[in-house]
Each structure stands twice: as C-alpha cells, then as structure tokens.
Amino acid sequence: MEDKHLLMIPGPTPVPPKVLSATAKPPIGHRSGDFSKILAEVTENLNWLHQTKSNVLMLTVSGTGAMEAGIINFLSPGDRVLVGSNGKFGDRWAQISKAFGLDVDVISADWGKPLDTEEFRQELEGDKEKKIKAVIVTHSETSTGVLNDLETINKYVKNHGESLIIVDAVTSLGALNVPVDEWELDVVASGSQKGYMIPPGLGFVTVSDKAWKAYENAKIPKFYFDLKKYDKAASKNSTPFTPPINLIYGLQTALQMMKNEGLENIFARHQRLTQATRAGIKALGLSLFAPDEAASTAATSVIPASVEADAIRSTMNKRFNIALAGGQDHMKGKIFRIGHLGFVSDRDILTVLSCLGATLQELGKDVDPGAGVAAAAKVLG
Ligand SMILES: *Cc1c(COP(=O)(O)O)cnc(C)c1O
C-alpha cells in the first residue's frame, strides 16, 4: 500500500505533516524583512530548546558538518585532544581530528558499552602541563544506542580548567536534557534530521564564551565554516550565506510544536518510549545491546539470538512497511535498531512491537507474538 511507510530509524526521523506543508511554501528572499522576522522567532526558540543565551548557529550541513565546524574553529594543528569513541560517531570525530592535524588520543570502549568516565578523569588529572586543548564526546552514540555520561566527563573537564568540551549532541538534543549554559558546554553540535523533526540539511552549533576565546588563537584554515561569520549574522537575525529557506520554514513550525509540548514533556516522552521499547524487546525474548543504565533515548539496539537481524528488518519492511535501522561497520547484520527520536508517539512503539512479534512468528521463532506489545503497554499505561 502506498504512503503507509513508518520510519522507525534514528535519523532521518519522521517529519510531522504540518512541518512538511510549511517547507512547501514558496521561498522568499533571505535578506527580506519578512525572513528576518522568521529568523528572529526561530533564534529565540532555538535558544529555548538548547537552554542557552548564546546564539545557536545554523549551517547548511548535516550533523557531521556541524561537528567539523565545532572542531576546526577552536583548535590548531598539533593541539592535543581526547576523543571518546565507543561507536561509529566517536570513530568519526577521531578521524576528523586526525584529518586536521590534531594530536589525537582516543579513549575507547567496546561498542555497546558506555565510555569509562574514570579514564577521562585520569587523563585530565594527569595532564599537569595543560596540554589537552579539547575533550570531544558523543553524548548519545546512535550506532549502538548507548548514552555516554556527559555530565560526569564534563565535570572532569571543568576541573582541568584549560580544555574545552566539544559535544556531539546530534541525537540527544531534543530527546533528553542537555542544559548547554548550566553545564557550561563549550561547543555543542546537532543536526536537523534527528530530534528537530525536520528533514536533513541544517546543522546547529552553540559556542561558549570560553570557546570564542579559543577561536582567537585557532589556526586551522576555514572560510565557509568560519563560525564567527554565523555568529555576527545571527545577532542581526540574518545569515552569512543563503540559508535553506524552506527548511527554516519547517524549523519554525517544528519549534512551535516543541514549545507547545514543553521541554519536560518532550524528555519524558522519549524516556517513556525508550523504556516501553526495551520492555517489549525483552518480552519477545530478544537481547538488548546497550545496558539499562546507559540506554540512549534516541534508539534501541537489539541483538536477535536465533533469527538474523537482516531477515527481521527485511520482513518488517516487506510485510508491514516499517523501516528499522541495521547495524553499522562490524555490527552490520548483527543488530537492528529501533529509532524513537523526534516525532514518535506511544502508538508507533506499540505498532512496531506488535509487528515485530508477528515477524518473529513468521520467521519461525517460537514466541508469543503479542508478548512485546503487552509488556510495552504496561510501561506506557
Ligand atoms: C546522525 C548523527 C550524526 C551526523 O550524521 P550526518 O549523517 O552527518 O547527519 C552525528 N552524530 C550522531 C551521534 C548521529 O546520530
């Protein structure tokens, strides 16, 4: 059946019809007074969402572009950085850092496990000469569904005093509490196709006063990604280059929807969907990749014991028109991931779990196909 697709992957995430209609309006000039008014509203609401008073800079990029800008504006070749890596995205920030000539020290953990905060403490406390210029951490590691303890790592960074903290909050912003100003997070990057409920194409970066001081001495070359240009323009409700006008129409509507729901309600919904999904998966006799105490609220990774992950995804797609995400890199074919980020409701989770039960039965697994939805309904009740 056409037009019945249920997108349950952690990015791109489902886009509300209201937001899609907003993006279909004819573009207007980005230097016009009318567009400037839209930017003023969007800026105010982005500050609310990010819990910050500083400008939330918007770049025409995917999340990776936002992170690259967040790294290159504040560092110089040869600078020592500590990069946490326990999945695909942590690996990527180590690669970017190396590409720009930084001296990269990787603190890694097995995929499926959270980063060990003690290792950060030891490295930072041992750095008596204050050589570490930045700690780069992925808050919610979407490739595995693991949540890293950003708050604790950030405390050690603050005790160090010199180092910046640069955060990939791509799948945590808009899904769980990331109080940018209260935690004094120096650079926070995210992307539109995740918690913001709009299509891909916009990246967001926040910058602290301390990071702007580091900017003054940063020597990595930049032009289009020079964040000072974006900051100056944002202060005047403008953009340095032509922005994706239609995406910003969508963002305006999506932010209004988020404000109507309220931050606490948004966080509570993601928490509830995560708990319901995990309960449902356990009840279906499948294993969870991430431990309960480090579960991302963006995606749940599942290790199917006897039936292949790809067979499950293929049947879910063909029979029920539900898209689930696969594993990445060496986890390809070993796990599948259920996204519950952004425009996702209780009903979506119940639908996915009941269809997953039917799928397992169809694939010959000896399971009560209704066990998952029953367990989830109890959590949601
Ligand atoms: C999606 C994602 C990104 C950005 O990926 P893009 O494809 O560049 O948008 C970065 N970090 C995490 C944790 C993500 O989930």
Shape: globular
**The CATH class of the largest domain:** Alpha Beta
Helical run tally: 13
Task: Look at the structure and name the CATH superfamily of the largest domain.
Answer: Type I PLP-dependent aspartate aminotransferase-like (Major domain)
Q: How many strand elements?
A: 14
Number of domains: 2
Structural class: alpha/beta
Question: What CATH architecture of the largest domain do you see?
Answer: 3-Layer(aba) Sandwich
The small molecules bound here are:
pyridoxal-5'-phosphate
Mean of all residue-level pLDDT scores: 97
What portion of residues is helical?
Answer: 40-55%
Distance between the termini: 31 Å
CATH topology of the largest domain: Aspartate Aminotransferase, domain 2
Please provide a written account of the structure.
It is a single chain. By secondary structure, the protein is an alpha/beta fold. It has two domains: 17-259, Aspartate Aminotransferase, domain 2 (3-Layer(aba) Sandwich), CATH 3.40.640.10; 263-380, Aspartate Aminotransferase, domain 1 (Alpha-Beta Complex). Helices cover 43% and strands 16% of the residues. The chain has helices at 17-23, 33-50, 63-72, 88-99, 117-126, 150-160, 209-217, 227-235, 245-261, 263-283, 309-320, 346-362, 371-380; strands at residues 6-8, 56-59, 80-85, 103-108, 132-138, 140-141, 146-147, 164-168, 187-191, 203-207, 287-288, 299-303, 322-326, 336-339. Strands 2-10-9-8-5-3-4 form a seven-stranded mixed β-sheet, sandwiched between helices. Helix 2 (33-50) crosses helix 9 (245-261) and helix 10 packs parallel to helix 12. The two termini are 31 Å apart.
